[in-house]
Amino acid sequence: MNKDDGGSRLPKWVAAVIGVVAGAVALGVAQLAAGLTNASASPVIAVGGAAVDRTPPALKDWAIRNFGSNDKLVLISGIVVVLALIAAGLGVLSRRRVGYGMTGLLLFGLVGAGAAATRPDSGPFDILPSLIGVGAGAWALSLLFRRVELNDWDDLPEEYPAAAGTSAWTTDPEYSEYPPYADEGEPGEDERDADEPGGGEPVPHPAEMPPVMRAGDALYTFDRRRLLTGVAVGVGVAGVAGFGGRLLGASKDVDLARRTVAKTLPRPAVAAKPIPAGADLHLKDLSPFVTPNRDFYRVDTALVVPSVDPTDWTLKIHGLVDKPVELTFDDLLRRPLMEADVTLTCVSNDVGGPYVGNARWLGARLADVLRDAGIRSDADMLLSVSQDGFTCGTPVDVVMDGRDALLAVAMNGEVLPAAHGFPVRQVVPGLYGYVSATKWITEIKVTRFDQDEAYWTPRGWSPRGPIKTESRIDVPRDGDAVPHGPTIIAGVAWAQHKGISAVEVQVDGGEWREAKLAEVNGPDTWRQWSIETDLTPGKRVITVRATDASGYTQTPNYAPPAPDGATGYHAIGILVG
Ligand SMILES: Nc1nc2c(c(=O)[nH]1)N[C@H]1C(S)=C(S)[C@@H](COP(=O)(O)O)O[C@H]1N2
Ligand SMILES: [Mo]
């Protein structure tokens, strides 16, 4: 056998399978190590995060358009597929020398470790999961190669015709070194039992067979049973470690911390205006006035939800201020907290899209906190920074103009959910989320738009993002079949901090008819609307447009979400029967 040159006769596909299994073990063990330490130190998550930050804006838009909130899942799946292909290649390379495959694994481990060490929220120990994973993967690789390959007579499967007959003398210590006859000549007749089946002629090891006899290569250069068990054990280890790591990393401390905070959450010093009974028309399929937390859209760049411990959380406020401050979570809760109903909207929300939701927030007034720090008059931007390094650039004048801009700690009467920014996030009525709604906020640098840039600005989105007046039809849904006759059309419209003053609906390009507006308790939320129309059979197109309290009516001209929010009328097509 080619033990001497380190080569292997394993068929390529077997080597590729071993490579993939070793790669899976590496990733699974790394995930487990990350779960025990810091979930975002997982190499896949770290490399994925680095990829997110480096994704060209056009690709990112395309991904959001095509995969919606599944874009992260698609990204991670893509990374895993690429890694599997590379691992298969490393397996094949390992046929030359297992060391080559191990070196390849190490290189990938270094890429993972490098990504984990350079994420904005990473610490020095974050390289460990990648390195531990690589160690496990390299070990699995060499173990599987040794295990699956038939290098010795002992390894020959029982059904190999000569195995039974030769086992008697190959276990003899004198001949334990294979091949016994290669250097020492044929063992004497007397040293073998010619009566054993298959005895007599020594059967050359498959690797030593002349080419013409190697038809059996695929059968006899590896042990199928050992391959199967090796793959099963490897995949099992990878699966259990990886899944366990995910469970451990998912929510271990945050759930407990949220429960603890829930016990001490102060009551609002200033309650929100009550929501009028007429704010919600309670129509089937119409977005409820208050979006339940579990249904609230989620948009962020975080591949794992950052876990922030409120007991060592602080908010640093510095830059163009007279006295920089650092607030603890308790400091924040000691301030008078106020409630406000505010509808968030994502700039990526296309016309008719789902990235808009309304909640009741509880928090400290951001303007008061800034005033206490002595914000200087030449400042025009708040660069807020999240635990994971994401940043928003919020205009100072907007935050200071008296609107309910909050450092929020609760959402719909519940401690802020982890995915929505626990323990503290910003909420600013009237601005798209990407310039205002920093989740997991840890820092506010008071600065100027001509000196600093927030996360999305160099990625092609406008530095400032006031929300554009929009409206959406929820009922019926696009493509629905509805019976003819009187039909309720309903939906929501929003123009945060201005308020909606009218909504009009049009059937098949006909006359605009004014819809009935539901009640609201302020200008910062969306507003439900409905109208009854008499529909005649056939294909019908229904279009909506809103007018805000400044008198502005939505433009019919379509604009895509980038760079500063979509415009145009939402229209649906239905089949009236
Ligand atoms: N830390 C952090 N905060 C963030 C983001 C992010 O990527 N990271 N995305 C922003 C964007 S684009 C939007 S639209 C809102 C969405 O808030 P939600 O996920 O609670 O709905 O969060 C904002 N805050
Ligand atoms: Mo957004």
TrEMBL record:
Residues 164-210 are annotated as: Disordered. It comes from the Bacteria. The chain crosses the membrane at residues 12-34, 73-93, 98-115, 127-145, 227-249. Residues 183-198 have a biased composition (Acidic residues). GO terms for molecular function: heme binding; molybdopterin cofactor binding; sulfite oxidase activity. Residues 304-453 form the Oxidoreductase molybdopterin-binding domain. InterPro entries: Ig_E-set, OxRdtase_Mopterin-bd_dom, OxRdtase_Mopterin-bd_sf. Keywords: Membrane, Transmembrane, Transmembrane helix. One of its GO terms (biological process) is sulfur compound metabolic process. PANTHER family: SULFITE OXIDASE, MITOCHONDRIAL (PTHR19372:SF7), SULFITE REDUCTASE (PTHR19372). This is Oxidoreductase. It comes from Planotetraspora silvatica. The lineage of its organism: Bacteria, Bacillati, Actinomycetota, Actinomycetes, Streptosporangiales.
